[in-house]
């Protein structure tokens, strides 16, 4: 009973707080077949919120795996015209988007990375107009999660089947602040206000750069763009609608200056990319560019991220999260960036968010690039926070401010 109620609350949260569906607006739900129990609640709640038409774009991980295994390279790299026109039609109709994340980590472990890479690039190229639309917050979008058995058993190796799935549901509810006794929509209003207050403090400092250091070997300077904006929590869409892109979210993040990162960063959690789990890796930067890297597992997948295009060797996001945060305190490694990135300081290889620079959402790409914005087909977050992370911010006039001590915010 309680679980059904909580699933409904998560669905309502995705609809009301996540995308904040407007009366008469179309809603597109993107989900895998493992998540029907949540998707059906989302669809109902979206209609209750006034949606005009709710469509679900289903995919199935095993079907995708079979295609990746058996289709030849050429066919895999062809993006059907109907997919492009369908995406355009939904977009031009002003739809908002709810994605239900339910990854199967390691599913594609035996697929040739080159094949994955080529298929991924072809898709990203054909649908790049859609990525621009979403990352520019032209409409409301959100990501929530639901378990599947394979994922759940990897997160909780001691549990099997339904038991593991139940445990993962509980962890997702807790991390998303969905509880029996409270209304999550109200709880998120308070949470958003707290994140906004933190953004304000960071924005007031107008840091020129941040220096990260810990005992694992991270020793990295990240320069920020002039007129950078710290964001986190709710955002405003191009249509002026307040929405939350991620459920959960704990981060305050901003835009690095493309050519201003130098030093070494050591990852503290694995990175799940195209169904491959990259583990124990580090990157070395010079003038913003990754010049050296290594990984104990799936190094080739990491190489493929970096080799995607010119911008994938530079970073587009830097995010600060205290080690003492609700998700980090669960002690659970979710093997899903939606959660793990909110438990740890992270950065993203690839494309930056225009909103992280003053007036960015209405700037042309050329203008953005001239200010140090990184353009790429990838946006791949990885975690490097630790309990002993220290961060020192340097302002324009050279004065310094301690931002993090022993893994946590001190400002
Ligand atoms: Zn982030
Ligand atoms: Zn990111």
User: Which blocks of ≥5 consecutive residues have pLDDT under 50?
Assistant: none
Number of helices: 14
Strand residue content: 25-35%
How far the N terminus sits from the C terminus, by CA atoms, comes to 43 Å
Task: Outline the structure in words.
There is one protein chain. With 411 residues, the protein is α+β, with helices and mostly antiparallel strands. The protein folds into two domains: 2-175, Thermophilic metalloprotease (M29) (Thermophilic metalloprotease-like), CATH 3.40.1830.10; 206-233 and 247-409, no CATH class. Helix content is 35%, strand content 26%. The protein is built from 14 helices and 19 strands. It has helices at 2-19, 36-48, 61-70, 73-76, 81-92, 113-126, 128-135, 149-155, 161-175, 184-205, 299-306, 326-329, 337-340, 365-370; strands spanning 27-32, 54-59, 96-101, 141-145, 207-213, 219-224, 235-236, 242-243, 252-254, 256-266, 271-273, 276-286, 289-297, 315-320, 346-350, 379-383, 390-395, 400-405, 408-409. Strands 5, 6, 10, 11, 12, 13, 17, 18 and 19 form a nine-stranded antiparallel β-sheet that branches. The longest helix has 22 residues, at 184-205. Bound molecules: zinc ion (2 copies).
In short:
The protein is an alpha+beta fold and 411 residues long. It has helices spanning 2-19, 36-48, 61-70, 73-76, 81-92, 113-126, 128-135, 149-155, 161-175, 184-205, 299-306, 326-329, 337-340, 365-370; strands spanning 27-32, 54-59, 96-101, 141-145, 207-213, 219-224, 235-236, 242-243, 252-254, 256-266, 271-273, 276-286, 289-297, 315-320, 346-350, 379-383, 390-395, 400-405, 408-409. The N and C termini lie far apart (43 Å).
């Amino acid at each position: 009973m309680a679980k059904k109620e909580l699933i409904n609350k998560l669905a309502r949260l995705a609809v009301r707080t996540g995308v904040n569906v407007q009366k008469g607006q179309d809603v597109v739900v993107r989900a895998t077949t493992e998540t029907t129990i949540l998707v059906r609640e989302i669809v109902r709640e979206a209609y209750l919120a006034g949606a005009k038409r709710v469509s679900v774009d289903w995919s199935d991980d095993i079907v995708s795996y079979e295609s990746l295994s058996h289709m030849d390279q050429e066919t895999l790299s062809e993006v059907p015209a109907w997919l492009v026109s369908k995406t355009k039609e939904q977009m031009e109709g002003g739809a908002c988007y709810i994605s239900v994340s339910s990854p199967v980590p390691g599913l594609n472990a035996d697929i040739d990375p080159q094949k994955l890479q080529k298929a991924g690039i072809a898709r990203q190229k054909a649908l790049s107009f859609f990525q621009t639309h979403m990352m520019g917050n032209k409409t409301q979008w959100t990501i929530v999660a639901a378990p599947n058995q394979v994922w759940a058993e990897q997160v909780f190796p001691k549990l099997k089947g339904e038991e593991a799935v139940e445990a993962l549901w509980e962890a997702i509810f807790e991390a998303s602040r969905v509880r029996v006794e409270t209304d999550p929509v109200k709880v998120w209003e308070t949470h958003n206000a707290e994140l906004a207050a933190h953004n304000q403090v960071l924005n007031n400092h107008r840091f020129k750069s941040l220096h990260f250091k810990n005992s694992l070997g991270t020793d990295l300077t990240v320069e920020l763009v002039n007129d950078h904006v710290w964001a986190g929590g709710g955002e405003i869409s191009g249509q002026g609608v307040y929405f939350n892109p991620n459920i959960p979210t704990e981060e305050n993040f901003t835009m690095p200056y493309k050519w201003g990162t130098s030093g070494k960063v050591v990852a503290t959690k694995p990175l799940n990319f195209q169904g491959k789990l990259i583990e124990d890796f580090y990157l070395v930067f010079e003038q913003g560019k990754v010049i050296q890297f290594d990984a104990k597992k799936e190094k080739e997948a990491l190489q493929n991220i970096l080799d995607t295009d010119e911008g994938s060797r530079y970073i587009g996001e830097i995010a600060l999260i205290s080690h003492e945060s609700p998700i980090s305190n669960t002690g659970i490694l979710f093997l899903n960036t939606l959660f793990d990135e909110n438990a740890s300081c992270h950065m993203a290889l690839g494309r930056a968010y225009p909103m992280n620079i003053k007036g960015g959402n209405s700037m042309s790409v050329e203008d953005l690039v001239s200010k140090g914005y990184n353009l790429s087909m990838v946006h791949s977050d990885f975690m490097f926070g630790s309990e002993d992370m220290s961060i020192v911010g340097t302002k324009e006039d050279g004065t310094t401010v301690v931002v993090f001590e022993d893994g946590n915010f001190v400002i």
